[in-house]
Amino acid sequence: MKDFFMEKIMFKKLLIASAVLATTTSVAFAGAHYKTDLKNEMPCPTYVFPTGPYIGFSIGPVVNVPNKPANYVGINGILSAGYSAFVASNFYLAGEIFVQDNANVQNRGFVKASTGKNVDASSSWGYGLSILPGMMINERVLGYIRAGVINSHFNHATANGNSLNKTGGQLGLGTETALNTNWDLRTEYVYSSYSGTGGIGVPHSHEFNLGVVYKFI
């Protein structure tokens, strides 16, 4: 009987040892598979700001303020087309051409005493070209500088009330936010300075534009 009980005890010990070994092996294999899965898992892709050819439309107020007693406020509409690229890791550069026109909101001119003609600082159509160097603020938001030239048509800006075209320089700051692969939202401020007209002096303008950009991706 004693041998029988000893055999049962030994049998139970063998069963317990086998169970422990099986459990340990399963856990080890599970851990190995888990590490392999983590190693093979693809990293989350980061967003890449799209570049290439694009067109844009912006709208916003424009204020002309010369050094004579006249000022003008209008609503400016701008159509643009350009091409952009990254020339370094986060350094962005674009070239752009544009045409614009505006609607009169407020026009305060004056009468030239020597001629009796109305003289004012109102402008209408214009066109120009710009370069836009910039840096990425984050993966979706670009900050840029606008530098370029503009030719604008001024109405009744000379001493005898005639219109004329004036060329000026532009400098501005803006941001462009990627909404999706093709569409961006653009906001900017642009300052333009022109040479003297002989009627309203030396006009300069301030523009605040909000618009969208469509990229041909």
Structural write-up:
By secondary structure, this protein is an alpha+beta fold. It folds into two domains: 41 residues; 164 residues, Beta Barrel (Porin). The protein has one helix and ten strands; from the N terminus they run αββββββββββ. A hairpin with a 4-residue loop joins strand 2 and strand 3. About 5% of the residues have low confidence.
Key phrases:
single chain, 217 residues, alpha+beta, Porin, 2 domains, eight-stranded antiparallel beta barrel, two-stranded antiparallel sheet, 1 helix, 10 strands
CATH-scheme architecture of the largest domain = Beta Barrel
Low-confidence stretches: 27-36
Structurally, how many domains make up the residues? 2
Q: Count every helix, treating DSSP H or I runs of 4 or more residues as helices.
A: 1
Q: What separation lies between the terminal Cα atoms?
A: 88 Å
Find the structural class using helix and strand composition.
Answer: alpha+beta
The secondary-structure element order is HEEEEEEEEEE
At the first level of CATH, the class of the largest domain is Mainly Beta
Proportion of residues in β-strands: over 45%
Annotation, overall tally of beta strands: 10
Rg over C-alpha atoms, rounded to the nearest angstrom: 35 Å
